[in-house]
Specification:
The chain is of the alpha/beta class. It is 36% helix and 17% strand. The chain has helices spanning 6-12, 18-26, 42-49, 55-60, 102-117, 128-134, 154-163, 177-182, 198-205, 212-225, 245-255, 283-294, 331-340, 363-375, and strands at 29-32, 36-39, 67-71, 139-142, 167-172, 188-192, 229-236, 259-264, 300-306, 311-316, 320-321, 324-325, 328-329, 350-351. The radius of gyration is 20 Å and the shape is globular.
């Protein structure tokens, strides 16, 4: 647990300013409790409109219209140059909020999520069947903003999600190794690897911790020890961190992830005040970077891509079973395993990936495939 001196932290009770809260709400964020937030992902909206799902549908079988995007903490220990957040957003090394109870966070997050989607009920562009299904949240992406892993009761919240048959996908910035070590099993844990060298990491992430490089490396060590699904994500900024392939490979091998996502920096939000549009790679450049990187990773191969998101996914060779890639998630099996509270590993909840390679089936085919699996 991050809180070592409860009385000291209770005195701090970091609060979101009214001005910052209003700014978030104008950007379609909603505050849940006192330190959590939700925002509907554009891919959730696209699915309801029948315009296709996100890369997580293609790579892992997530139904985008049933995914809730949220965070348990608005504060972060980094000020990454590629982040949408402005420099007035809260930053902190330690937990400085009042600690909301997990059930409050879950209930209010779902409530605000559904409120944000209610406008689709009478929307002519919305697919009625898909909108109705969106009322049943099946996945939560703890990746909206801030650093969700530092919430002191994160494991209790994760257990509540799983009890409701909601799969969990959490992104950490690799500055809290002990929290990675102590985190309960989740559906998939992401670690952001924003730079391949100490000097570049300082330049790109602007970390608050002085021992940021040591924290990253310790996080990778603990990451490698986990038995649930793990993924390292690279956000490539053209002209900044699109080099040092051997160094990237060394760090990736230390973390030993099941999957690697190589994604383009997107020129959005406050990052536009710090970077240029020219820093946003084309999808073709991400593909080329991935092809060069995999030459330094003997245990990984390219499996799939999602062109609209400008992202390429690599997986360990061992996920190719009987000549078929197995990167999709058997959510039913995962929830059965968590309910039994027994030890299990990544390979206990795999499904065959319907679409692989650098082109293939469309979203409707993937949705149909997922629905057929759910009916089995």
């Amino acid at each position: 647990m991050l809180i070592k001196d409860k009385k000291k932290i209770e005195k701090k009770n970091l609060q979101l300013s009214e001005k910052y809260t209003q700014r978030l709400e104008k950007q379609a964020y909603r505050i849940a409790g006192s330190h959590s937030a939700v925002k509907v992902c554009s891919w959730t909206k696209n699915m309801i409109r029948g315009l296709g799902g996100c890369y997580k549908l293609k790579f892992y079988g997530i139904m985008s219209h049933q995914c809730m995007q949220m965070t348990t903490s608005m504060s972060c220990a980094n000020r990454c140059v590629f982040c949408w957040r402005g420099y007035k957003a809260p930053v902190s090394k330690e937990w400085e909020w009042k600690v909301d109870e997990p059930n409050i966070i879950l209930e209010e997050s779902e409530e605000e999520h559904h409120k944000l989607l209610v406008g689709f009920k009478g929307n002519k562009e919305a697919d009625k069947k898909t909108f109705k299904a969106s009322n049943n949240v099946k996945h939560v992406a703890l990746s909206l903003t801030g650093e969700p892993i530092i919430y002191p009761k994160i494991n209790e919240l994760i257990r509540l999600f799983h009890k409701k048959n909601i799969s969990t996908f959490l992104v950490t910035n690799a500055q809290y190794p002990e929290q990675i070590k102590d985190l309960d099993k989740i559906t998939q844990l992401y670690l952001s690897l924003d730079a391949p060298t100490k000097e570049l990491l300082k330049k790109i992430d602007s970390p608050l911790f002085e021992d940021y490089w040591e924290r990253l490396n310790k996080s990778l060590e603990y990451f490698a020890e986990r038995k649930d699904r793990t993924c390292i994500r690279l956000t490539i900024i053209k002209g900044l961190n699109d080099n040092h392939l051997k160094e990237y490979a060394s760090l990736i091998n230390k973390g030993n992830p099941d999957f690697i996502e190589i994604k383009a920096y997107m020129f959005v939000g406050e990052s536009r005040n710090r970077l240029k549009k020219e820093n946003m790679p084309l999808h073709e450049e991400i593909v080329l970077f991935s092809k060069e990187l995999v030459k330094h990773l003997s245990n990984y191969r390219t499996v799939s891509e999602h062109i609209p998101s400008r992202v390429v996914m690599l997986a360990k060779n061992e996920f190719k079973i009987n000549n078929s890639w197995q990167t999709w998630i058997n959510f039913k099996k995962f929830h059965e395993l968590t309910s039994k509270e027994k030890d299990f590993s990544t390979k206990d909840y795999l499904l065959s990936t319907p679409q692989t390679g650098l082109s293939g089936k469309g979203t409707r085919d993937l949705i149909r495939e997922r629905e057929e699996i759910e009916l089995e």
